[in-house]
Amino acid sequence: MAGGADGLSSPAALSARLGRELDERRSQGLERTLHARAADESLLDLANNDYLRLSQHPAVKAAAIAATQRWGCSSAASPLISGYTEAHEALLAELLAWCGFSCGLVWNTGFAANAAVLSGLPRRGDLVLADRLIHNSMIHGLLASGARLQRYRHLDLDHLAELLAQTAGQYETVFVVSETVYSMDGDYPDLRAMAALKARHGFFWILDEAHALGWYGAGGSGLIEAAGVADQVDLMVGTLGKGLGSMGAFTLFHDEVMRRHLINHAGEFIYSTYLPPSCAAAAHKAVELIRQQPAERPRLHAMSRDFRKMLAAGPGGDTSVPPCAETLSAACVDAQLVTCADSPIVPVRVDDPVAAAAALRGEGIRVGAIRPPTVPAGEGRLRISLNASLSESDLRRVASAVNAVCS
Fold first, then answer.
1. Catalytic residue, candidates 198, 211, 284, 285
2. Cα–Cα dist 387/243, whole Å
3. Which positions ≥6 away from 389 have C-beta within 8 Å?
4. Tens digit of pLDDT for each residue in 210-219?
5. CA-to-CA distance for 152 and 132, rounded, in angstroms?
6. What's the pTM value of the predicted model, to 2 decimals?
7. Nearest CA to 215 among 160, 296, 155?
8. Domains by residue range for the chain, with CATH
9. Does residue 135 have an active-site annotation?
């Protein structure tokens, strides 16, 4: 083994090892790089998660500015010292009323919330049954928990039912973990069917609503609301930085013991300077706006379905009068993943996502280029994020450009 005279590995040896790993990733065309986005760029941006465009809403901006003037730019302390302010408390009260839970916590990020919850609540002797495509933050937490992790096939509730039946009575606590809207596929499980499984088997149910907030439910609080299962979900995770246009995350519970335990044991909560009050105030205003616009959700769902139909028209198709979504063109049937869904996330399978995204940038359109290891090998895709500000002409333009790239 390479090392210095004292037998310890040297910084040079470490750099060489890391360099070899990067060289391997680069040779596979998978090295990630960082690029600064300009505030005044003219691209039609379909790569971010600002689904309702609330980060740009004048009232949301005004709330953040007012909170900054009152509290300053930082919370300046961890939440258990003095970082937890009246702005955070007011946001939490709004979230509880919105989503139908009795207690909760606000976190700095969605990653921190998921990692803390899933490393801190399951323990050795417990079983966690998780959808195969759950987010990396969930996996990160679960692998640190000591619990047995077993994944069921994506959205396959028959497989979940089999695993629940096979493991009945073998573990102290069984957790079932899923997202509602999946971040890379834009699909979602049947929450009512999952609730029926819980009634039969009695597991602890955790759902991450990160990509559903603002898009679903009569009040806009997500698919849990739309399915009417809030009283059966034990723990809801949500983010403030997607549909709510701010930054941060939250976890909501029906049992105060969960909240108290995390306050006392979750390092992600205890040891970090807390989310700035301006972010809490911006998210609070965003929730108020969403709750005031119940008619917006059906319009968003129709837009999403119509866009998928435009993609299904294929190159040269008439995108102004969308055909049936199930009728895919021969040219794109192998390249595109067009699902009959109404979520804001539209994945389009391509062999070379980076090249396809670059071609679309040349047309003035920004989309996400998603490659392994974010998605499994062979499942690279363009990730198109729809938002509330898109016009019908925008949708036709994007669908035509994507179909041309796929042809």
1. 211
2. 9
3. 53
4. 999 999 999 9
5. 6
6. 0.88
7. 296
8. 56-291 (3.40.640.10), 296-406 (3.90.1150.10)
9. yes
